[in-house]
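Hi X.,

You mentioned you wanted examples for the new student's onboarding notes, showing what a folding record looks like when two proteins sit in one file. Here is a clean example. The first protein comes first, with its sequence line followed by its structure tokens.
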Amino acid sequence: MFLRIFILCLTLSPFSMIRASEIVSPEKCSEVIGSGGNYISKNNGKLSGKCQGNVIAPKVVNDAIVFSVPAVPEQFKLSSYFSTKKNKSDRVELTFANPKIVFGHEYQIDFKLKVLPDSDITNESFYLLQLWQAPQYSPIFGLRMKRGTNDRATFMIRNPENHIAGKNLVNVKLGGEWQNFRVNFKITKEMKGEILIYQNNKQILNWAGNMGYPEDRNDIDSKLRLKFGMYKFHEPHKKFNISFKDMRFIKVD
């Protein structure tokens, strides 16, 4: 199904005035994507930051990117907390600008992921990795935490037949140790997808099927975006901390 690449050649790109692997203007991170909290990546250039709700801007700690949602103090009234929000989501994430995702081509994502031990158990929708088709749709592919856990997650897809909750493809164990993932995916104009996933160098999924929402537009692929970080429903009295490192997103063919 796929051309498999197991030896990675990392190319360092020069950046003027800014060091690679650095968060730029974290204090300006806001609901306006790219206004702050941006990450300068050795492998993929500038990744645009976005912060919304009760979150802390991304930060680099020991070569890993840490995403945090702090707990709202118990004495803080829920009604007051929610009334100050336009919606009830917490979002702290980074979006790849390059490479552009084009129909009919294969892409590869490499990353290491760890859930920090002080993270609480979630009981709400909680995405760690997302492929977005357009703002009017929920993610059409992603990795999301399983409710009732803080160390289990599921790779999933969404399509018209599985519009509300999506379709779970494979479960993965996370926990306090680094988990190494490789994801290869391809999507066509007819919104047919192919996904191959490795965890710790072991293949855990080889899937093909409907992925995303067919549209009568020629520029639909220009809207596809890959994001990582945290995108979840509010759980105000809980805290969540996750780390990513060695992120690399490439076009294979």
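Then the second protein repeats the pattern, sequence line and then tokens:
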Amino acid sequence: MGSLFEELEAREAAARVRVEELEAEVAELSGRLELAREGLEPGGCR
């Protein structure tokens, strides 16, 4: 069984990985949103 400190370090590392995953998802969704907005502009749909 690991120490409390080791457990906290492991949780922090997992949280950092999750943050990176969420940041990547936000970037992808932002790109999709921008494309959708461009399609709504006059002359955006061709």
